[in-house]
Amino acid sequence: MNRTISMSLLLLFASTQAYAEFTGAGANEADTTVEQVIEEREEDREVSLTGFLVKQVDEERYWFKDHTGDLQVEIESAAFGGTEITPEMKIRLTGEVEVEFESVTVDVSSLEVIDQGLPTRQQPVLGRDRELDI
Known about the structure:
By secondary structure, the protein is an alpha+beta fold. 21% of the residues lie in helices and 36% in strands. It has a 5-stranded mixed beta barrel with strand order 1-2-3-5-4.
């Protein structure tokens, strides 16, 4: 009987540890969508957005687009880290929401390239029966 109780407690303890995880700041931060940022209008909220820079407005302001919509973001040149970003490149922006009157923007603190967006180049396949003219 004691052995059964001991085994049950051991299994219970082991399974509890298997599901333990970090729950502090930064844990399991899921991407926020543009639609959520605009609808929630939560000043100073830290967000992570994945999508595309589609147009430069001025020196530090750009239009950013994801699958739910678009909004203006402010990115200082240092956040680019010398990387040239094109509209085809999928990126992740991290920053704080800024709300002024009717305007909602994100002040970007970091930028990460997720996908270069370069088309795959297919090489022609030559069959055995083809001769190359050189």
